[in-house]
Design a protein that fits this description.
Layout (H helix, E strand, L loop, with lengths): L3 H16 L4 E2 L11 H14 L2 H6 L4 E2 L3 H34 L5 E3 H6 L14 E4 L5 H10 L3 E3 L8 E8 L3 E8 L6 H4 L6 H4 L2 E2 L8 E2 L2 H18 L1 E3 L2 E3 L5 H13 L1 H15 L2 H15 L5 H9 L4 H8 L3 H11 L3 H12 L3 H7 L8 H22 L1
Parallel strand pairs: 1-2, 4-7
Antiparallel strand pairs: 3-4, 5-6, 6-7, 8-9, 10-11
Helix pairs in contact: 1-2, 9-10, 9-11, 10-12, 12-13
């Protein structure tokens, strides 16, 4: 069986070659080991994790000696992704137009903002949803607009305090998802870095999506992507195969590569100033160097040196050094700025819905919900006691 590390290294080499306009050869000897059904299935799974189908298909003429059935499957997946993108964009455009008509300021973040700003083909920035941020006082009106446009509330995932999920059916083919935010991050510690008004103060238009679409400036987006990537590497990224941990997705490296190439002098200066103010310079430098190791991204060494020389904010450093979700939760709870938010965080963590409990305790499907919640509380209390007594 071909090892995951070997597959990822192969895909990294492939991507570097294609982005440079060079041929990307299939793996060398022993060639037969890379053409078995098990190997092709494993490679396909990693392609899904890394989100590379459209990029590979767009450069299929450079895929040298790739198995025919792999190239055909990539083409079919790229076609489906293109259909997803077109229906997703149509649903978003209708919503953004309605929000503007209702005088609700909204800004797209993360994947969709990147897809329509730095990627040549929006569908090549594979993602499962869009992230839209509004101001807290506009929540109820935004919910009314979403409902009027055909979106409906989704209560999964559970435990979100500063955002919520909405879904819409598109022509019976796709169910599109939108995360409606009133804070840039659902984690209070990270809200110290990603501040709400930053996303509106320097917003830029996204005319390739529609006349009513906006995104944050690229320097802020690069910081946002750094924190998002670092969190997902630790906690995992959901794919069709389930949650995948520990991997840096190559499509994220493409994001960093394109952002770095497009910042310009003013953008780099703003990035250094923002990082210094928020205490995340070394984290951003680390993310940029990682992307450069994947894709040979040219980076200004004086900028990297300036970022690496900055101190990291202690709470941010501790947040990413903590090894379990309970520690993260405690840090977020202490950082939350209102008792109302703290109450919601405690309530949602201590008394989750049955669907969440069934995922955690699949062998106790006959237990009543109250008993499952009691078990969760007892286990959490035990973890707290062990942490206190061993610290």
């Amino acid at each position: 069986m071909v090892e995951t590390a070997a597959i990822d290294a192969f895909l990294g080499r492939t991507l570097r070659a294609l982005l440079s306009g060079n041929a990307a050869k299939w793996i060398g000897a022993p060639d037969e080991d890379w053409r078995t059904s098990d190997a092709l299935n494993a490679i396909w799974s990693r392609l899904e994790v890394h989100g590379l189908f459209v990029l590979l298909h767009a450069n299929s003429g450079l895929l040298t000696n790739w198995p025919d059935r792999m190239v055909e499957a990539i083409a079919e997946e790229a076609r489906i992704t293109g259909l997803w993108e077109s229906t997703h964009a149509a649903a978003l455009t209708r919503l953004l137009k309605a929000l503007e008509a209702a005088n609700i300021e909204a800004v797209l973040m993360k994947g969709t903002a990147l897809a329509y700003s730095i990627h040549g083909e929006p569908a090549s920035r594979r993602r499962g949803d869009s992230d839209l941020i509004i101001r807290p006082p506009d929540r109820e009106r935004a919910r009314s607009v979403l409902t009027a446009c055909g979106w409906y509330r989704n209560d999964d995932p559970h435990g979100l305090v500063f955002q919520e999920s909405w879904l819409i059916d598109a022509a019976g083919q796709f169910v599109h998802a939108l995360d409606l935010h009133w804070e840039p991050s659902d984690r209070p510690v990270l809200q110290r870095v990603l501040r709400l008004e930053d996303f509106f103060a320097h917003k830029e238009p996204l005319p390739r999506l529609c006349d009513h679409a906006y995104r944050p400036d690229h320097a802020l987006t690069l910081i946002h992507e750094t924190l998002n990537q670092k969190w997902h590497i630790t906690h995992g990224y959901w794919t069709e195969q389930g949650r995948v941990k520990g991997a840096r997705r190559l499509i994220w490296s493409v994001d960093f590569d394109l952002l770095a190439r497009g910042l310009g002098n003013e953008g780099w200066e703003r990035l250094v100033a923002l990082c210094n103010e928020r205490g995340v310079g070394p984290l951003v430098a680390e993310a940029l160097r990682a992307a450069a190791s994947d894709l040979d991204t040219p980076l200004p060494q004086d900028i990297l040196a300036a970022l690496e020389a900055q101190p990291t904010a202690p709470d941010i450093l501790r947040y990413f050094e903590e090894s379990d979700s309970l520690s993260e939760f405690w840090l977020d709870l202490r950082t939350a700025t209102s008792w109302r938010d703290r109450f919601r965080m405690v309530r949602d963590r201590g008394f989750p819905p049955r669907a969440h409990l069934m995922t955690k305790y699949p062998d106790q499907s006959r237990w009543p919900t109250a008993l499952l919640q009691a078990r969760l509380l007892i286990e959490t209390a035990g973890r707290i006691v062990r942490r206190v007594t061993t610290s």
